[in-house]
Task: structure prediction
Amino acid sequence: MVEWIHPGMVVFLGAFLIPFITRRKVKLAYFLFLPIAGLTLVVLMSMGTFSPIPSWPGSLQKWQIRFLDYTLVLGKIDKMSLIFAYIYLIAAFCMNLYALHVKNDWEHVAAMIYVGSALGAIFAGDFFTLFFFLEMMSWAPVFLLWFRGTKKSTGAAIRYALWHHFSGACILAGIVIHLHRTGSIELSRLPWGWGGEYLGYNLMLLGFIINAATTPFHSWLSDTYSEATPSGSIYMTAYTTKTAIFCLIRTFPGVPLLMWMGAIQAVFALFMAVLENDGRRLCSYHIISQIGYMVAGVGIGTEMAINGAISHALCHIIYNALLYMGAGCVLVVAGTAKFDRLGGLYKYMPISFWLYMVGGFSISGFPLFNGFISKVMTIEAAELIHNAPIYLLLEGATVGTFLHTGLKLPWNMWLQGKDEPPPEIRAKLKDSPVNTPLHMLLGMGILAFFCIFMGVYPQVLYDRLPYPVMFIPFTTTRVFSIMQMFIFTFIGFWFLRGLVTGHPTYTLDTDWPVRMAGRKLVWFCEKPLMAFANFVDGKVMDLVDFLTWFSQNPAVALSIKKEEWRLRAKSLLTNPAGVEKHRTDLERKKRAYPGELPKLTLGASLLLILLAFLLYLIIYLLGAG
Amino acid sequence: MKMNPLRHYPKKFFWIVYFIGLGLSLVLDPLWLHSHVLHYHFPLQYLPEFFAIFGLFGCMLLILIAKGMGLFIVRGEDYYERESRR
Result:
């Protein structure tokens, strides 16, 4: 009997076979099969085929490997990692379905490595394994960005790598300090506080919140996700940030700082979203805003809040992939996702519109959609600790979320009150209500099904959460208040809809100082630093040239140099005619250089050699002293 | 006659549903729900029509404040590209 098979390893290693399959149909079938294989393993795990799953917080430890003086645990299986693995793989299957049209095999490989390493991270039982997989995860999206092939995406890829290697370095530093203090690499809850003794933990926390795109470190997300390939960006929406939330739940539950950061982030991102013109960037700001709920949930740290954070992370993967797919459809079909160039598309892609709207209703938290059942848990947790500011911020974020993803984005992309899209977009469309490729609609359809299924039957999720759920989402109070809120949000939108239309603009974000400082650094390296380097280089080369020239005939060279100095002194004192003669003599002498080399006698040669040895001896003795 | 497969979005249906919802939420809130059914955690939430006000003003404030922020942070579409050419 096999001890255990790591579903992440299946996906990760299986990815490398994709380019070697020649028949395209077999290749695509294999590509779809990879997440299903992983999912089968997860189902077997949860059925207790390998060993029964203990109740939270107990865990199984599989695949323990000795490494130097430590034991690496590749498989820490508990209720939380199982439910994450389920959703990761279900989402991966739908994303693969959506990405079937992509011709570049290596994009598939990068995506599957990404999914595989994300699974590796959530099954990690120690910090070294976790760090290894987080680093792998920070590379895969770089390729998803590069494969877009535009100049912007190339730059975005480098910025992505820089941000994530910075956060990786912070996490590694934290791990090393933690290891030095405790001697343990076990992935467990860590202490937190202000002050020098918590430096390592604060560094680790910083690394995780950069990965989770917490304000003010959120801008890498909106900057890069919107530049990836249409299908590649879907993978990016799901894994990096949610794995960071997973790490936060494992290591820093109940840190009050996180509660405030999360609540502020949930609202701040919405202000940025108002000004956004690009559909995918708008959705990116919504990822940031939704992560705010999760971070706040982790920060509140009660059983209900942790449950809320986990369920929101999982529901978020599903509906946000759906939203990004909706925006990606328009990008693929119409060639742009910019609001100022769209509108009136409904007639030509109504199915994409309605599938997108399922995602939009879910993210806003409409009852009977999956955002509702997870979001209200976190909000309820904030109410139960009687923290009114946190509650108001999170509730306010609900309003803004509905305003953007439920109203602004669909209005600007598909409707704008127009019957026909702008002529240059119309030219790209067929006279049919189905312009979107079928496999994309299928991928979206499955996700939409899960949005509604989890929303109508939340028990399917609640039963698998780590803590027992004593929570009924559908109370009259909640359903009524949220519906009333949305109805009135719509009035606000309808009156101000002229203000939220698209304009061809770019909104500066918190990364502006960093990017400008980066530019200045590059400028400093290219201009003053290079000028200085060239100067030093020139001087050194001059010296080398001189030494070469001098050593050809040192005796004559010395006399030439002496003559030059004498000439210089003479030109200051005596009349020009005499100087001129001297100069022509010197010129002739220089041209003749090196001329006849002086013949040395044997004795003189030996003397010179001895002198050289003496010099060497002196240097050697001085150096040794 | 062949039906045109291209249809516009169901505008009329939407408005009818919307106004029914609007009317119901406005009327039911103070008359029945607040005194009998609803259960909240903060006194603020017990104000009649609190969530209506919260939704409406939340949404409008969000847009207006963001537009105000926009005066300072909105740039041309190729802002970073232009900066790098300079």
User: Anything to note?
Assistant: The two ends of chain B are 62 Å apart (CA to CA). The first helix of chain B runs from residue 11 to 36.
